[in-house]
Input
Amino acid sequence: MFNFVLLQGRLKIITRGLYIVILTVLISSPVETKECVILLHGLARTQGSLSKIQTALNDGGYHTVNKGYPSTKYEIEKLAKDIIPEALAMCPSGEKVHFVTHSMGGILVRQYLKSNTISNLGRVVMLGPPNKGSQVVDKLKNTPGFKFINGPAGMQLGTGKMNVPDQIGPANFELGIIAGTKSVNLILSRMLPNPDDGKVSVENTKIEGMSDHISLPVTHPFMMKNKKVIDQVIYFLKHGVFDRENLNE
Output
């Protein structure tokens, strides 16, 4: 009888231990959202520039596709036509699809959605997008070496009616935009209306039809690595608006 009671006690201890282990695993494991996020980097960058935000999205339970593309080799129209269908095919079938883009990556999404429909499209977050072009391109496009470095697409990112961003039209999808207000290149900032991020003015990141827009004290080349930016991206994907309560923390 004593041995039976002792055995019962040990079984209870083991059962409790297993319960705690299982509970810990469930709590620490990311919750699967069954949603895919396609990440598109900017001009003359690589998918590595979005690795930090990709990790955060993976930790949040999203399936991510961090799609690299030859941004300086072709025009915007061809890049959008070729790259976005490839990225969509990499998302699990049936999952809602979001986009998180940096700089010109957002213009590719706009260009693609101008003439294509994604039936399971979720939300789009653009970081520092030249939605109305950049005055930097206006001033430097005829400088020797500019086209060699930035390619055909870079030549299309100026302001005015003849440039691609202004020809695409308003957003007809859920769109959140984060603009930067700090610069690491004061020479380029002198070519831009203030405030700016060193490549694009805050005003020129805006677009008709956008759902929400915020500005943060971050620079164009590094905004996607900033924790506050990443937190705001994830918040918008979940809620369709930015977290203004924690905007100034």
